[in-house]
Amino acid sequence: MGNAQDRAQNKFDETGGKVKETAGKVTGNSEMEGEGKGDQLKAQAKDAMENTKEKAGDAVDKVKGMFKSGKNDADR
Predict the structure, then answer these.
(1) Which helix (H) or strand (E) holds 14?
(2) Residues 49-60: pLDDT tens digits?
């Protein structure tokens, strides 16, 4: 999956978790409520991982660019 698709899926999963949590609260089903909270946390963790991967990729690209252009800290 692409980054945009991953983020959309994470948002969908987080929303589903909110719905499940609310349904659990309304029906007095604490197990469902807990599952909903867990689903939300899982989606948020996946989104954080996507952010980390993106930032790491940006950092790698920056370093590659520095080497291609011949710039490094010693030249500054």
Answers:
(1) helix 3-27
(2) 998 988 998 899
